[in-house]
Design goal:
Blueprint lengths: L2 E4 L1 H9 L4 H13 L7 E3 L6 E6 L2 E8 L4 E8 L1
Parallel strand pairs: 1-5
Antiparallel strand pairs: 2-3, 3-4, 4-5
Length: 78
């Protein structure tokens, strides 16, 4: 089981993305159970332990801290 740490600014922005809000919250819940969601997660080249998940036009970018079993969701892009 992993802890998902989400910045407050990201939480506020997720609430404004109405068409994608439920799917984003579902994905964030899945991230606490599995480190990488098969078929949805792409590793970002040039970054260590940093991944993205695409939901429509939105990309959730997060970093995995394997030893601490934490995930930091630190951004998204449209």
């Amino acid at each position: 089981m992993f802890n998902v740490i989400i910045r407050k600014s990201i939480i506020k922005k997720i609430d404004k993305l109405k068409p994608y809000e439920k799917e984003i919250k579902r994905i964030l819940t899945l991230l606490s159970e599995t480190p990488i969601i098969k078929g949805r997660t792409v590793k970002l080249s040039g970054y260590e332990n940093t991944y993205r998940i695409r939901i429509g036009r939105i990309r959730i970018i997060y970093k995995i801290f394997w030893k601490e079993k934490n995930r930091l969701c630190y951004g998204y892009r449209l």
